[in-house]
Write a structure and sequence with these properties.
alpha+beta; 5-stranded mixed β-sheet; 4-stranded antiparallel β-sheet; 27% helix; globular
Length: 245
């Protein structure tokens, strides 16, 4: 997506393992000549510090008049543009344009790149979509109540208070500003909702089975990362207690 509404310059935090993505899309495609085009996607998870709450992922519902996959759900993302300084800046731009959120940190890559064909049937282009888990500026605790409490249908909307249990809860946590040309709604979903997604009435209809599998992989990688942080904190606390005794 290309928009005249561009974010102000940002500083992106990345780990050493992701530094090879700090290159332009042109450089990436030159180094990987089997691909014609590059797309990016972003996984934005809720931040939960209450043990009874579930992790939620932000999904966007495509506009009903989209030629491809109308009304289907997807993670934020789109085409990498040649004037984006790096691939990671492409992620930041797409996230900002589609949600109004500002990328703060790229946590990890999800998968190894999803390939797909697009364009005229007689001359399709081979795309690769690189997807990343990210953190956004200002993200506070996004705590779960029920799925419908995390669903908003509008071009520009902010979730309402639904008597959540914690002061730093969902309504104050994050504001999503959709681009109505591309998306009509957003929703914070659980892993279980993704697992039962499909064409049945009342289920999430994702853009593809490949997207569903990548989302499930992202949940697993996120939970493993969170567990690793918790284990590390417990280990440090135990060492501190031992020293203090």
């Amino acid at each position: 997506m290309t928009s005249s509404h561009q974010p102000t310059p940002i500083s992106i935090q990345i780990s050493r393992e992701l530094r090879h993505f700090a290159v332009s899309s042109r450089k990436f495609l030159d180094d990987n000549p089997s691909y014609n085009r590059l797309a990016v996607g972003a996984f934005i998870f809720s931040v939960n510090d209450a043990p009874s709450t579930s992790t939620h992922l932000l999904l966007l519902q495509r506009a009903s008049n989209e030629r491809a996959f109308p009304n289907c759900w997807e993670v934020p993302g789109g085409s990498a543009e040649q004037d984006d300084p790096t691939i990671l800046h492409s992620v930041a731009r797409e996230v900002f344009e589609e949600t109004g959120l500002r990328l703060n940190r790229v946590v990890r890559q999800i998968g190894s790149g999803m390939e797909f064909n697009a364009g005229p049937s007689d001359n399709p282009e081979l795309w690769v979509k690189l997807e990343f888990e990210i953190e956004v500026a200002g993200m506070a605790n996004v705590l779960a109540t029920t799925p419908q409490h995390h669903h908003c249908v509008a071009s520009n909307c902010t979730p309402r208070n639904h008597d959540l249990s914690y002061a730093s809860s969902y309504p104050q946590a994050i504001e999503i500003t959709l681009d109505p040309v591309e998306h009509q709604a957003y929703k914070w979903v659980t892993e279980e909702e993704v697992k039962i997604s499909g064409p049945a009435e009342g289920c999430l209809k994702l853009v593809s089975e490949d997207q569903r599998q990548v989302i499930l992989q992202a949940f697993q990688m996120h939970e493993a990362g969170v567990q690793g942080i918790h284990d590390n904190l417990k280990s440090r606390a135990s060492k501190h207690d031992f020293t203090a005794s």
